[in-house]
Amino acid sequence: MGFWWRPLGVLASVLLVALILWAASGWVAALGFLAGIQAFVMLRRLWQEFRLSRWLESPDEVDPPEATGTWGDIFYRLQKLQRRQKASRGQLTSALEQFEHAAMAVPDGMVILNGNEQIEWCNPASRKYMGLDSERDRGQFIRYLLRQAHFLDFLDAADFSRRLVCKSPINREVTLSMQLVPFGEGKKLLVARDITDLERVDAMRRDFIANVSHELRTPLTVVGGFVETLADAPELPASESRRYFDLMLDHTRRMQRLLDDLLTLSRLESADHVLRDESVDVPELARALKAEAESLSRGRHRVRLQLDSEAGLKGSLQEIRSALGNLVSNAVRYTPEGGEITLIWRERDGEGIFSVTDTGEGIAAEHIPRLTERFYRIDRSRSRETGGTGLGLAIVKHVLTRHGARLDIQSTPGKGSTFSVVFPAQRVQRPGAPEAGQVIPFPELGQAAG
């Protein structure tokens, strides 16, 4: 009844005046009055409709009409509705802008396709992975831009549970994982993710398993063969049996060294293995490593020690000893008889440098960047003859990374190599420094892992 009371009240007033005029002046005056009122109402309605139409055509530019009565109520309610729509539109615009900003920041390539597989929108990452541009390629059929057969088959299948792993069409070194996702009414979202690192890690895992299996197969075969021989011929001469047992022991120790190195790598890579700093007496460690090198060499090489600094280090004694010991044992293994091995401990620009120089065969430049990879060998057969596991330099790399140090390798084929471990200045401790603390007792030395 809230709407009707005003027009009904006006109608009642008009009829009452018309009745009074009819009674006082006759029906002609009453009809004339009613006709005049009707004309006024029609003209006023046309005027208000004109104002309403002009306002609705440009609601942001024309002020809302002002009126009284029923038209005033209509204008007021339309103005409230307009304000709500503006607020809702502002919220939607803000939400859309936030979504677009988020989509722009997503590292994965994202492309919105309509029902005809035309590009409606794509984020900047899609340019990096697929060579698409939101402005240039909008409205283009994606089939015309990405024409690889496997991608077209992927589109035709329209299987939202399937992923396509392929090389980037603009960078063959990048591996992408593509997936289609339903997006709105009849649309699809194409998502391209860079999985190059995952593929590389997976390849490393496969290579690692293959290498470990290969390294263990030879000694297991040898040991198994000798065991079968001894079982089938228990009356072998003592000298021959002794030779078999020595070879079995040699290959067993080789497997033990490999397992020890694998456990060391696993421990170094574990997030739970926290680095515990202690004071390391490097000159004492260097003397012990020289004695170990002489023991491994058995007089076949000249081993020299040059101490140009009395400084120590702050770090893990066990890990630093393992890393430097690997470098020393490698120098002994790969230096021909009669060669020279030099151990040097010095400081340069505040950094501590431990170098191992040999007069071996040297290393070609193309091999140097890969020397710290697991099981990477320049000459696989020669490495086995020397007893190396192929994990020594990988262990060195992990130890140095944990200590913020780096490995510098200089080598000339036919002349020899120098492996230098460079420790940062903050880990160098000079004698008498307050932070040096008590030197940790040096443990008993064993043979370094190779």
The CATH homology group name of the largest domain: Histidine kinase-like ATPase, C-terminal domain
Shape: elongated
> Which CATH first-tier class of the largest domain would you pick?
Alpha Beta
Secondary-structure class: alpha+beta
Strand content: 15-25%
At CATH level 3, the topology of the largest domain is: Heat Shock Protein 90
- Work out the helicity level: 40-55%
Compute the gyration radius: what is it? Answer: 44 Å
Distance between the termini: 98 Å
Describe the sheet with the most strands.
Answer: 5 strands, antiparallel
How would you characterize this protein structure?
It is a single chain. 51% of the residues lie in helices and 17% in strands. The chain is of the alpha+beta class and 450 residues long. It folds into 4 domains: 5-96; 106-194, Beta-Lactamase (2-Layer Sandwich), CATH 3.30.450; 199-269, Signal transduction histidine kinase, dimerisation/phosphotransfer (DHp) domain (Helix Hairpins, Orthogonal Bundle); 278-429, Heat Shock Protein 90, CATH 3.30.565. The strands form 3 sheets. It has a 5-stranded antiparallel beta sheet, with helices on both faces. It has a 5-stranded mixed beta sheet with strand order 7-9-10-12-11, with helices on one face. Strands 6-8-13 form a 3-stranded antiparallel beta sheet, covered by helices on one side. Helix 1 packs antiparallel against helix 2 (27-57), helix 7 packs antiparallel against helix 8 and helix 9 (282-297) runs parallel beside helix 10. The chain is elongated.
